[in-house]
From TrEMBL:
It holds the Pfam family FAD_oxidored. This is FAD dependent oxidoreductase. GO terms for molecular function: L-aspartate oxidase activity. GO terms for biological process: NAD+ biosynthetic process. The lineage of its organism: Bacteria, Bacillati, Actinomycetota, Actinomycetes, Micromonosporales. It comes from the Bacteria.
Length: 534
């Protein structure tokens, strides 16, 4: 079996993994980065989810390298796309003019920019990227991870990887069970966490829905796909709390749980520069077409785009029939999630009510070329909730809930290593729960949430940090995942340079202060200015 060694091993090439690899390589470390899918970037690319970000993202509240990613995406459009002069001059260019984010864009552009950011370190051989590989085994010695075995996705080939520091940046915390690292899944009990939104008893198999996203445009002709095998089930499926069939324009409002009806108007003749994507003012999901639109045709010169392109990550594709973590039939559930997405598309093309009183939009065309997949859907499922380490410090709802903290703001952590902001946003879950959507204060990321209670050299670098089921709803989004990964990469470098453990860095005031100075100089923000949450 082939063997490779580096200073830092990052398993998982999502946003957290890329940020970790970039940070460690910039610090001069040799790095191995593995990724299961064809694209680096995780939720931003292979999962095809446009950035979910807070209202101040253009001013503050993100690391300098995350800001460089966002600027790189805009500049890529300016360099390579035939933008109108008006859009080209738009400082905060939003290529898709989607309402969910101030920066909605095609996934492939993010892939190009991420690769551009990593290119110098790949060229110098400081960074080795292994794709497509997934972890299949972990070797441990007491409280340390000694090595990770990865297997090629498409052929019988395995590689043994070793490094003094191993970072788990997989979407579901795959290294945690393989290494025996203590972790939690699903809902913790209120007795354990004291959280107002937690149940009386723990529900480890009660996890947020997964979604298989896809891209659409709307052009002349009939582009109706074959009727999915399970279409009848999904067309008639009516969850108890939904207020209608899942495949309908009606669903619960996440914040109020009132049953509301959304609209769907492909290619509205709207002005991209008039879109105000501010989640404080408007969640933006009134017209599902513009909600997560990733290419607004009016941003480009006439005739280049025959249609807008929209990204379908809507309530009706949430699959909550069963979890996909720590169950023997995970692959079956993932296949049913894909079937649901195809069924939603078929319903849109054939039976969805139109504003003119008719039914179906046969001009909707599946854009697998946009998501880089042969089957037309996103390469990977959108995983909202990972396994989470049992950490030295676990972030709980009362640390950041606006209802609990009010004008006091989120809890201040002495060991802060970053910032984030998003409502506590939980989608319907496998336990039959409706949305949980709670206002949040702008919050900090504590270093204690990145340190396992026992294992010494395994660090989480994504959604697998020490949050609860509830607070994961705030910490799972793009800027926070990047921040976590970047800090994990910098922490591995810091510990290697000083011969100290992550636990010692957190527990020694002088080391902690030095590390915080180090990450601050790298562009990691540790505190928020005085602003109110939403």
């Amino acid at each position: 079996m082939a063997q490779m060694r580096a200073d830092v091993l990052v398993v998982g090439g999502g946003l957290g993994g890329v940020a970790a690899a970039l940070a460690a390589a910039r610090a001069g470390r040799s790095v191995i980065l593995t990724e299961e899918f064809d694209w680096l970037g995780g939720q931003l690319t292979s999962q095809a989810v446009p950035p979910d970000e807070h209202s101040w993202i253009e001013q503050f509240g993100a690391t300098a390298s995350y800001r460089a990613l966002r600027n790189g995406i805009r500049n890529y459009y300016r360099r390579h796309y035939p933008l109108t002069e008006r859009s080209r001059a738009w400082t905060d260019l939003n290529p898709g003019a989607g309402w969910v984010s101030r920066l909605c864009h095609e996934p492939r552009v993010a892939v190009a920019v991420l690769e551009e950011m990593l290119a110098p370190y790949r060229g110098s051989s400081r960074l080795t990227v292994l794709q497509p590989y997934r972890p299949v085994a972990v070797e441990t010695d007491g409280d340390r991870v000694i090595g990770v075995t990865v297997a090629h996705r498409d052929r019988d080939e395995r590689i043994d990887l070793t490094a003094p520091y191993v970072l788990d940046a997989t979407e579901t915390g795959e290294l945690l069970p393989l290494s025996g690292t203590e972790y939690v899944t699903g809902f913790e009990s209120r007795a354990e966490t004291g959280e107002p939104s937690a149940p009386a008893e723990a529900q480890p198999m009660n996890m947020q829905a997964v979604s298989v996203c896809f891209a659409l445009d709307h052009v002349d002709g009939d582009h109706t796909i074959d009727r999915p095998a399970g279409y009848d089930f999904w067309r008639d499926y009516k969850p108890d709390f939904w207020g209608d069939r899942l495949l309908s324009w009606r669903s619960p409002h996440p914040r109020t749980l009132e049953i509301v009806e959304r609209s769907f108007t492909p290619n509205p003749d709207d002005d991209p520069l008039a879109v105000n994507a501010d989640q404080r003012l408007n969640p933006g999901d009134g017209n599902l077409w513009t909600f997560r639109r990733i290419a607004a045709r009016r941003n480009f010169t006439d005739g280049v785009y025959g249609s807008d392109i929209t990204l379908v990550n809507w309530p009706m594709i949430d699959y909550f029939e069963g979890p996909v973590i720590d169950v023997p039939n995970a692959s079956w559930h993932l296949s049913k999630a894909r079937e649901l997405s195809y069924s939603v598309l078929y319903w849109l093309q054939t039976e969805a009510p139109r504003p003119d009183g008719g039914t179906g939009f046969p001009g909707l065309r599946l854009r697998g070329d946009v998501t880089g997949s042969r089957d037309g859907l996103a390469q990977a499922p959108y995983i909202r909730e990972s396994r989470r380490i049992r950490a030295e410090y676990t972030v709980v709802e009362q640390d950041l809930s606006l209802a609990v903290r009010g004008s006091h703001g989120a809890v201040h952590y002495d060991d802060a290593v970053g910032v984030g902001m998003y409502r506590i946003d939980l989608h319907p879950s496998t336990g039959g729960d409706n949305y949980i959507d709670v206002g949040s204060c702008p919050f900090e990321i504590p270093l204690g949430a990145l340190i396992p209670q026992r294992v010494e050299n395994l660090l989480p670098a994504g959604k697998n940090i020490g949050t609860t089921h509830v607070t994961n709803g705030s910490y799972r989004l793009h800027p926070v995942e990047w921040n976590v990964g970047e800090v994990a990469g910098l922490l591995a470098d810091f510990c290697l340079a000083r011969g100290e453990s992550p636990r010692a860095v957190r527990g020694t005031p002088s080391l902690l202060a030095e590390f915080q100075d180090r990450i601050s100089s790298a562009g990691v923000e540790l505190r928020w200015p005085s602003i109110a949450g939403y």
